[in-house]
């Protein structure tokens, strides 16, 4: 008994000591400013419709308590569910968006209508689809330590990048080789009940890689930088898959997460109380990059403005001025505490100004440049980020000539041609009917297909033809249309001596207007595991046009017309 008391006392003492040693400093309460520089809200929230712990109404109520004006729900999905119309719940504007899983990372998409087919597959395909459908996409948690979650395609024309994500921060600590970050995580379990938002904020790492990546892309085109809270209202104690709730702890709660950080957006019009119009104005402000991110758990409520002025013209953050202007002045204004440092950065690394004043103006160097502001809580260990602005872009006039239209030379016409070596392939549950339609100019292939409703084995329908020689061509030209918008997977299949078959694919968008699409063979990527990154062109492969469960709903049916298939090479690559 005595021994047990001793043990309890030692344990209690250790917990108390942890509490004293690792308790994060309290949030600084700032006087409310007349203009915070935007409406406060947060994006990237999971509800109980996917792997979140709360219902939309409860989440909105938590956001209201945390003082937020808007929230964006981003449940996992493929965009085929109709998003809820924008609505005020508990006085908070609730916008329904989606977090799409690609083969290399998650893409959060706002402002999408119902997608005509599941959005999935390669990041570049999802980015293209979101763009075509008029949505706005954010590469989510690009620094995630988990392979499947980390964004993997920086050439794709993403609209935005998620620069801070607390969910990723703790995941990163779990996999750190050093013991310190993991001990911090354990200590946070002790301090969380006393200072929830300060504890979450203390776990935010420095997003060095993400900011560097962002700075490397913005000289070419505008990309919005934005925080996501990635709130699930639960925490897996180790590196579990998202959605694996078996060992999840019911915190951090939504309210604590919402008190930790926020995004302040300048809507394109003032809010009127009409949810649809306000959502539109908010999304307009987000698209334009008229927003900043604030870690409220350090000091709040934040007030911040970053603008540039030249010859009577003035732009907000996210805006652009021509580099031909003789003098451009950059102006920063905030309610930063005196101990905080405000930095205007020019692209990667270069610091244009570092001040402790709340308000100052500096002249931009002549010529093109991309400028953004960081304010750091210099009184805290490691001077963590308090505010991150969006850039102001000073651009030189576009001097690049438009890319010349490339000409293609047919090397081999595969359709219409003699003999017609085309056939269909499908899984046992799916059906396919391929017929040849006579045409004035020759013939058309017409495919009617119906995919099995059973997801296993993965249903597919394909049109296939052997190709005897591919060289010296490097591309395929396909003229095709479909009954409804869809993605078609163009594939090459080779048999490998003694090792079965390997496939490579490139997915193309097809709709009811007949169009020629060009697929470069070295742009194809492996289906499953292959021994080479791109298809070898020296074997006699099989060419396939595949409709599968990646982009088509299981149980769906449709029609496809193919007018022409040819192996081509570029006219200038003789
Ligand atoms: Zn995600
Ligand atoms: Zn998420």
What is the strand and helix layout of this fold?
Elements: H1 2-22, E1 28-29, E2 39-45, H2 56-65, E3 70-77, E4 87-89, E5 92-102, E6 105-110, H3 123-132, E7 136-139, E8 160-164, H4 166-175, H5 179-191, H6 196-203, H7 208-217, E9 224-231, H8 254-260, E10 262-265, H9 275-287, E11 291-294, E12 299-300, E13 304-310, E14 313-316, E15 320-322, E16 329-334, E17 341-346, E18 350-355, E19 359-363, E20 369-376, E21 385-388, E22 392-395, E23 408-415, E24 423-426, E25 431-439, E26 442-450, E27 460-466, E28 475-482, E29 486-495, E30 501-510, E31 515-520, E32 525-527, E33 542-548, E34 557-570
Parallel strand pairs: 1-12, 2-3, 2-9, 3-5, 7-8, 8-9, 15-22
Antiparallel strand pairs: 2-10, 4-5, 5-6, 6-7, 10-11, 11-21, 13-14, 13-16, 16-19, 17-18, 17-20, 20-21, 20-22, 23-34, 24-27, 25-26, 26-34, 27-33, 28-31, 28-34, 29-30, 29-33, 30-32
Helix pairs in contact: 1-5, 2-8, 4-5, 5-6, 6-8
The chain binds zinc ion (2 copies).
What does this structure look like?
By secondary structure, the protein is α+β, with helices and mostly antiparallel strands. Among the domains are: 298-400, Immunoglobulins (Immunoglobulin-like); 408-570, Galactose-binding lectin (Jelly Rolls, Sandwich). The strands form five sheets. The chain has a seven-stranded mixed beta barrel with strand order 2-3-5-6-7-8-9, surrounded by six helices. Strands 23, 25, 26, 28, 31 and 34 form a six-stranded antiparallel β-sheet that branches. A hairpin with a 5-residue loop joins strand 29 and strand 30 (501-510). Helix 1 crosses helix 5 (179-191) and helix 4 crosses helix 5. It is globular. The termini are far apart.
